[in-house]
Amino acid sequence: MDGEINGLYPTPRRVALCKDIAVPGNRIYGEAGQTWDARDGSKLSARMAELIKHGWVEVIPPAECRDGWSTRRAFYRLTAFGRAAIERGHR
After folding, report:
1. What's the pLDDT score for residue 86?
2. CB neighbours (10 Å) of residue 40?
3. What are phi and psi of 89, to 5 degrees?
4. pLDDT tens, 26-84?
5. What is the pLDDT of residue 79?
6. What phi and psi, each to the nearest 5 degrees, are found at residue 17?
7. Which residues is 85 bridged to in the sheet?
8. Rounded CA gap, 69 and 3, in Å?
9. Residue 18 banded pLDDT, cuts 50, 70, 90
10. How many domains does the chain have?
11. Within a domain: 7
12. What pLDDT is recorded for position 68?
């Protein structure tokens, strides 16, 4: 496995979560202080907190949210570190 990206190794599980975040459609979202996968209802709070802490993912500011997005939910996007993790995961 290659080295760390901003303090985290790009493990298959982390890369898979980054790929899920990168897909349009708001599958991964935050609500009431927790993070969820809309596909299967699984809770991702600890994993998402780790990615945010290490700068792989950021919360999309409400001012940038598209029409129709709930004001009670948080949505996420990858940073350059998250995109690098996906690229490294393809090797």
Report:
1. 96
2. 7
3. -70, -20
4. 789 998 889 999 999 999 999 999 999 999 999 988 777 765 566 678 889 999 999 99
5. 98
6. -65, -40
7. none
8. 37
9. very high
10. 1
11. no
12. 58
First to last CA, the chain: 10
Q: Which domain holds residue 59?
A: 12-89
pLDDT at 2: 63
Q: The domain that contains 24 carries what CATH number?
A: 1.10.10
Q: What is the C-alpha to C-alpha distance for residues 27 and 40, in angstroms, rounded to an integer?
A: 10
DSSP code at position 8 = B
Q: Any bridge partners for residue 78, and if so which?
A: 57
DSSP sequence for 15-67: HHHHHHHHSSS--EEEETTEEEETTT--B-HHHHHHHHHTTSEEEPPGGGPPT
CB 34 within 8 A of CB 43: yes
